[in-house]
Amino acid sequence: MNAKDRTALNRLIVYLKPHIGLIIGSLVAMAFVAGAETSIPALMKPLLDRGFSGQLDSKLWQVPVFLVGLALVRSLAQFLSNYLLTRVINAVLLKLREQMFRTLLHASTTFFQKNSASNLINAVVFEVNNVLSIMGAMLISLVRDSLTVVGLIGYLIYLNWQLTLVVLAIFPIIAFVMSKINRRLRSLNREQQTLTSELAYIVEESAAGYKIVKVHGAEEYEMGRFMEKAERLRQFALKSAVAGGLNQPITQLIASMALSIVLVIALMQSAAEGTTVGGFAAFVTAMMLVISPIKHLADINQPVQRGLTAAEMIFALMDQPVEEDESRKLNMKSLQKAKGAIRFENVSFSYQQEVGRKEALMEVNLNIRPGEVVAFVGPSGGGKSTLVNLIPRFFRPTDGHIFLDDIPLEDIALADVRRQIAFVSQDVILFNDTIAANVAYGAAGEQGIDRGRVIDSLEAANLSALMKEMPEGIDTFIGNNGNRLSGGQRQRLAIARAIYKDAPILILDEATSALDSESERQVQDALEQLMAGRTTLVIAHRLSTIEHADRIVVLDHGRVAENGSHDELIQKDGLYANLHRIQFSNA
User: Fold this and answer.
1) Are 576 and 562 within 8 A, CB to CB?
2) Which of 188, 302, 386, 581 could form a disulfide with 244 if both were Cys (CB 3.0 to 4.6 A apart)?
3) Residues spanned by CATH 1.20.1560.10 within the chain?
4) Residue 153 host element (H or E)
5) Residues near 79 by beta carbon (within 8 Å), at least 6 away in sequence
6) Which CATH architecture fits 429-502?
């Protein structure tokens, strides 16, 4: 076992420590199972030697009673050990999933850019089960089966140490075979893990983009992608099955060879020394009983290797740095309600993970007053979205500083920064919950939802008709990402969520892009009321929607190219005026 495997095992053991009482109870029950297994051949010897001698021994009637008693004890002990172990494993499973999901919720934006949703789902939902399979397999096989093997071999030595040496000779042979197969399994399991994630990603893409798939008639193309990965996964699964499946037949073959040798030696001893029938039968019974736990110990190799491979993935995910650790929180400043003043001083930003990509922002200087409506426009790739993503601290500037109410943004507690911001994107994200829960998203359960504010927010977003149409009003479930609503309704529901939050800073990223003309006019009225007294940052491609902004900032290649009101920029006849002419000439 290499250093990585030992580290993974040590970390898993840490999760077992809180359940030491249940584990000890399970181990004791396993010891009873092992003891019962060892006692069975011990009862065979007197039964055969004295029970078939031609004379009736009254004490021999106790042997069947003991056999039934042993079977009862073994069954109860096995049930108890499995039950206690299942409780431990499920408790650890819950803890691991809790910590993994908490890590996901607090991971950085960069982490989500590097990992697909299917990879994360596979890790949290499926791979964690493989990690726990190692616990169950090790605790059962390494404890119960090991105790059984030790007990039976001890009895074999007591009966006939010469024959026992033959039996013991099979162990190093089995260990050698397992070590050879072990390396092959680890490599195959890693490949399977990667291919499983890739297959899940294809399913995720096809399900999310089903409209595009259907419109473009790409069903066969997607089927081809899916089957290519599925076939490769099948091949690797077969290779793993072949490698893992070799353990048991090889073990059985070696054990059968050992049994044949034992029979020959036993016959020779019987002729020379007069070995009794009962003694020989007890020896063979014990030997046959020891083969089963040895096979279990051999078969543990495959699940252990899968578990260790999965453990590497799980702990790699859990070791991801969080956006803001506890030590930083202690030194942060608290901010309950911001006035909304935002200042950029020589701010630059680069997506460092993308090799060869130029800086997205370069030396941006900008001063936004409380309550001001500032629109950001410019060619695609100019840095508009990057700039506003720095304010909720989804990213941190490479150089320079951002100030909120004259306080450096990095010195304010992250939760307090985000409490000041409401965000409406062109890519609407809704949750498979009720209308009320989506509008009051983040509230502490049903009791934390202010239903009156929810209704007011929906009315402000011109969704009164929606509330009347729905069978259960604001308690109606809206489906996966709001698929029971129209595009315009989904967009307005996202706006209602921003209205409900009532934050001093509002970020609108093409917030009216999915609306028809009538809905856009209604929502624009609601947004104008919402923006009153709030610092509002608007990313816009349709320039007609931001002509009345207090200021328009034109970004080009990461720099502030122009800055002023609509009329000022039109008179300047620069980049903004050119963009405006192009849009309205096309219109």
Assistant:
1) yes
2) 302
3) 3-318
4) helix 146-159
5) none
6) 3-Layer(aba) Sandwich (3.40)
- Residue 527 host element (H or E): helix 517-531
CA distance 349 to 363: 9
Ranges of CATH 3.40.50.300 domains, the chain:
429-502
The predicted-structure confidence for 449-486, as pLDDT tens digits, reads as follows 899 999 988 888 888 888 888 888 898 888 887 888 88
pLDDT at residue 560, rounded to an integer: 92
**What is the model's pLDDT at position 185?**
73
Quote the percentage of the chain above a pLDDT of 70: 82
Query: What pTM was computed for the model?
Result: 0.70
Compute CA distances 381 → 361, 384, 564, whole Å.
Answer: 10, 8, 21
Give the H/E segment covering residue 537.
strand 535-539
Residue 232 has pLDDT above 60, yes or no: yes
Distance CA 391, CA 55 (A): 96
Q: Which residue has the tokens 């077992």?
A: 16
What's the confidence (pLDDT) of residue 366? 94
Instruction: Classify residue 333 by its DSSP letter.
Output: B
Distance of CA 77 to the CA centre of its chain: 35
What pLDDT is attached to residue 555?
92
The second-level CATH assignment, the architecture, of 3-318 is Up-down Bundle (1.20)
Tokens 């453990």 belong to residue: 311
3 state DSSP class of 365: strand
pLDDT above 60 (res 314): yes
Helix (H) or strand (E) holding 495: helix 487-501
Phi, psi of 3 (to 5 degrees): -65, -40
Single out the residue of 408, 412, 508, 409 nearest to residue 461, CA to CA: 508
- Whole-number Å distance between alpha carbons of 407 and 338: 10
Instruction: Judge whether 404 and 581 are in contact, CB under 8 Å.
Output: no
Mean pLDDT of 115-119: 77
d(CA 164, CA 283): 9
Return d(Cα 342, Cα 345) in angstroms, integer: 10
Q: Which residue has the higher pLDDT, 329 or 228?
A: 228
